[in-house]
């Protein structure tokens, strides 16, 4: 038994004491609870009856939970001129097509920047990084002029196409490809006769799966939460987030409906994150590492 204990201690080779491990665990647990509080409060508020919504001092947790806010939300949505399913299908279409296009374009561009050298590549990539500093409000007027010139106003395209060129996705994929895909492997594949398309789809993309899964989560969150677009005028083309925002504008009597709508909108990104959280953590841990 003594020999086993010595073997375990020798194999563990700790860099800090058990007390240090416990302190770090407690520290992380406290911050995890703090970060989870907004989501817990949102769900609790969505289950509160109206008399609990405005009680003072406010209560964090619901005491008499009810689903009346959700049923009232769907009843109000059914009274809209455009059916609820239309808003939902618009959002699903925009999210699916926008996410697929963003991941595909970001991956191809990142592969070119990470594994190929061409004139002006560093300057172009620096401009891409610089674009991360600009708020979307800054480019609204130029974007409208471009979309009007292309004839895309009042279509799905103003929602989808600008999302294809997201700078964050390109930056994330490039950093991960540089860190996780060795040049020697691609050189060997090229000698064996593999083309650029084969190397990207059969070699690079499987190796950077954590990165593009993370990018999928970010894209889903971005497109799913798309609100009223100033280039969309037709009610039949507007997304679910716009319809739910109209419910929140009914004053204090719709406070519970607004809380229920907020929970509906945040559930899809949260569910997608739960299925891929390990890959996202892996991406965050290795995206800044280079050979």
Extract low-pLDDT stretches.
1-12, 287-291
Number of E-type strands: 0
What is the general shape?
globular
Count of helix runs? 14
**Beta-strand share of residues:** under 5%
Radius of gyration: 24 Å
User: What is the domain tally?
Assistant: 1
CATH class category: Mainly Alpha
At the fold tier of CATH, the topology name is MetI-like fold
CATH architecture: Orthogonal Bundle
**Helical fraction:** over 70%
- Say which CATH homologous superfamily is assigned: MetI-like
Largest sheet: none
Q: Report the mean per-residue pLDDT as an integer.
A: 79
Description:
This protein is mostly helical. The protein has a single domain (70-286), classed as MetI-like fold. It is 71% helix and 0% strand. It contains 14 helices and no strands. The radius of gyration is 24 Å and the shape is globular.
In short:
With 291 residues, this protein is mostly helical.
Secondary structure: elements and pairs:
Elements: H1 2-12, H2 18-46, H3 50-53, H4 68-78, H5 84-115, H6 121-131, H7 140-150, H8 157-164, H9 167-180, H10 183-191, H11 196-207, H12 209-224, H13 240-247, H14 255-286
Helix pairs in contact: 2-14, 4-14, 5-8, 5-9, 5-12, 5-13, 6-9, 9-12, 12-14, 13-14
List keywords for this structure.
single chain, 291 residues, mainly alpha, MetI-like fold, 14 helices, globular, disordered N terminus, disordered C terminus
